[in-house]
Design brief:
Elements lengths: L4 H13 L4 H6 L28 E8 L2 E9 L3 H6 L11 E11 L2 E2 L8 E6 L5 E7 L7 E2 L4 E8 L2 H5 L6 E3 L7
Parallel strand pairs: 2-3
Antiparallel strand pairs: 1-2, 1-9, 3-8, 4-7, 5-6, 5-8
């Protein structure tokens, strides 16, 4: 006796879905497309990024008596956060992406399909920086911090050191910690 066709189809779909780790399952739909590189002047007047379509907000980092201002994309949804800055070929020095979490939680990121080095800045709920890590392109090695954070900010790799941004500097943006 042959099993019903619907049963065979359902089992096939379940078997295929189980072949990927959870992060790969989240990214499977987005890996097929490659976004064009962002232009250095990327924030139009309507407040959305021309490449990702994500909302864009100003973000400030206060470090060493200086204020460094960035224009950042805000990745709020699980899909937006899973895709992040993948497939970008450049990131302007004053651009970035912030990944807010509600409530704060321990966070760990990898660089799958991310073509440029990034500084990952882990931000506590009070706006102070818990850790800055420079992540290498295409690495599958998790980069994290051992404490709950409100957000992770990604900027061009090496930029934090260039600007003198260190742990315990303060980060603020609309909808995030305030000065």
């Amino acid at each position: 006796m042959t099993p019903p066709l619907w049963l065979v189809g359902s089992l096939s779909v379940l078997a295929l879905a189980g072949c990927r780790s959870e992060p790969e399952q989240k990214l499977a739909a987005t890996n097929a497309t490659t976004l064009p590189a962002a232009s250095p002047a990327s924030s139009p007047l309507d407040g959305t990024h021309p490449v990702s379509g994500l909302p864009v907000v100003p973000l400030e980092i206060r470090a060493g008596g200086k204020v460094h201002t960035f224009t950042v994309e805000v990745a709020r949804s699980q899909d937006e956060q899973a895709y992040g800055l993948m497939n970008r070929q450049q990131l302007a020095p004053a651009e970035g992406m912030v990944f807010p979490f509600a409530p704060p939680r321990p966070a760990s990121f990898w660089m799958k399909n991310t073509l440029i080095p990034l500084d990952m800045i882990f931000v506590r709920a009070d706006g102070t920086i818990a850790r800055i890590a420079t992540a290498q392109p295409l690495s599958l090695k998790p980069v994290g911090v051992g404490e709950p954070v409100l957000a992770v900010l990604e900027i061009a790799g090496g930029r934090a050191a260039e600007l003198g941004i260190t742990a315990d500097a303060r980060v603020s943006w609309p909808g995030g910690p305030q000065r």
